[in-house]
Amino acid sequence: MLNISLLALTLWGDVLVQPFRIAEAEPGHHQGCVRAAMAPDGHFAVAWVDSLQPHGASLELDLYIRFFDRDGNPLTDAYKITKMADTNRIYWPCLEMDTAGNVVLVCEEEDRARFDDLDNHYIRFQRFAPDGSPVGSAQTLVPQREIHGSRPIGLSLANSDEFAIAWCAPSTLGYGAWVQRFNREGYPKDKAFLAHDDFGTSVYFKHPQVALKNDAGDLAVTWYEFDSTYPRFQVFDAADESILPWEPMGHLVNEDKSGGSRVEAYWLDNDRFVFFWIDYVWPWHIAGRVFADRGLTRYPIRRLVHDSLALTWPDPVGRFAVAVSSDERFAETHTRSYTDRPDTSDPSKLRWWDHGVGILGYIQDNEPIRRTNLFEYTPPWGADTINSIINNWPHVQFPAVGVCDDRIVWVYSRFNTDTIFEAFAMITDWDMGVGVAESSPKIVSPIQLSASLNQLSYNLPGQASLTLYSADGRRVLTETIQGKGTWTPSPPSSQPSSHLPSGVYFARVKNNSASARAKVVILH
Fold first, then answer.
1. Beta partners for 134?
2. Pick from 97, 419, 496, 513: most CB atoms within 10 A?
3. What is the C-alpha to C-alpha distance for residues 98 and 127, in angstroms, rounded to an integer?
């Protein structure tokens, strides 16, 4: 078994922006439940919950979001999402940003008018423009559902005028994984539907997640079978018809039925998607798997992290986060915990250290491969990292990550000396000097690109697709290229539909096994 070394922040050579506070909290409040999303140009948004008690103590209050430029400078003040009532609770925020920088923030809000296990819950929505300004006001997407904060919701935003959410709510009497599409203004594009058969109270499904494909509108939906701990999935086309053969309970993510957690899903292109989850085969580990042919073809499961991690107890929420770049690299982060149990039977003396840790990897030959060793990017042990124990349960704040092709933002929450959680962010590049995993081969791309003014030279085996993006992330051109040659833009005298104005563009060349990117300057 590979021995994974742990490397400290002090060994890094490519930290672009040192850790900084996201925003000041309300006096005496914690900042937790952090989420992050980054645009192709590197500007990013962070969302967090501001609460009187640590995450998990049921008194979470307000949801905030703030926007930053690529260097971590604030673009906006912290913006508080409007709730239905001041006393309502906020659970499980979800944050997505498209390639142009448009943002959708979705959360679950609990109506505190009732104080029993059947409180009314609502899924709420707020949209933001690329500059961070709110577009309209917060509104309700899913009203009066008996959903619960411990059952996360899922969100996926496409570059088209569409996003999709997934949530758990009663079907007949049991809990099922529901899915629905909305346009960017928050209006339904179809009816909500179950991703599986209705089993009533005999089967409980929880923790659904969803990935929406940009071009065709296909949906990959995942959920968790609570009684058996099996992660399952199904794939649907734009008409919400199943692409895979119908399985009443959905298809198993891991056929060995080893059990697992909530599954994060990401489309890699119009044909392939990748899943990440915590697998319960001992030693519990973070696993990844690529599917092709819109889910019909499965590639081998790869173990990405196997270590004594707090996240790896059988926790169906799956306390980790992953972000995938356009050139199929990924960053994963979770909380690594340590305990110090003094020679006493008093549980209040138990000390618990929590640190944000991560790995970097890439997709090659349709398999997720870890490129780095496991590394810590938060400060070392100390009094300010001692976590609290309430009812003998540690309140772990798991971190978040956002990426583009040239940088990464790591967002995490940690205790200060007054035992208050505070949210921080740090920006790095992809070459962080954290050590290369022994089992990871060197990436050698068979696609060679060379850009100069008004042209892009290429050399590749067989055919590939050439996609050109404008500086604001819009796709402006797609062509098929082959072998060795040079691409040049259409002259101004050509058809208006094919003419590209002067400016900076980003080219991506991709085939079934590799991809490469280059910046192209067009000047007429």
1. 128
2. 97
3. 12
